[in-house]
Amino acid sequence: MGDGGAGAAGEEPVRVDDPSYLVGVPDEFQRLWTPHRMVYIQQADPGHEGCPFCVAPTLSDEDALIVARGEHAFALLNLFPYNSGHLLVCPYRHIALYDEATPEEVAEIGSMTQTAMRVIREVSHNDGFNIGMNQGAIAGAGIASHLHQHIVPRWAQDANFFPIIAKTKALPQLLGEVRAALAEAWPKG
């Protein structure tokens, strides 16, 4: 077995060929293991067949984290939220860019975004929102092939140094609980 290079004079060389040697070596990072994200890492653009926004409407609302369904679009929780209540509004049709949406899709995405804001404010008592779309992978879209609008609730005290120092995001509510609360408060009809 080779070594990964010599250490300082009189020290044992650092072994990089044996991963078990490095287990437990402390550094500044805490690890939050998220194997469910491998689908996004291994397949950056899943295409229509593997698109989670195309699959979601075929599942139950609870399984897909869908809060509301419209005629041209639907609202669901982000599986990787920035804050509790982080919703996405997606057209059913598999399109990548906002300028590819029909006038009906644009109107319903806008209407559902407004309703989402009202519902989130009623349920969560948040202080503000970040709303936006990342268009294309280069602009930060995780699923670049299917248009989606983010609605992220914000509170005056939601920003802290935990993500910066601990490389961890704290979310005070489980996704299923948030989905149930928002779906219950969403206007019927």
Automatic annotation (TrEMBL):
Extent of motif Histidine triad motif = 146-150
Q: State if Cytoplasm is listed as a keyword.
A: no
UniProt xrefs under InterPro entries: AP-4-A_phosphorylase, FHIT, HIT-like, HIT-like_sf
Reading the lineage from the top rank, the first entry is Bacteria
Q: Enumerate the UniProt keywords alphabetically.
A: Nucleotide-binding
Can you give the residue ranges of the HIT domain?
A: 52-161
The answer, when asked if Transmembrane helix is one of the entry's keywords, is no
| Pfam families on file | HIT (PF01230)
PANTHER family in UniProt: AP-4-A PHOSPHORYLASE, HIT FAMILY HYDROLASE
This protein is called what? Answer: HIT domain-containing protein
Q: Which organism is it from?
A: Leifsonia williamsii
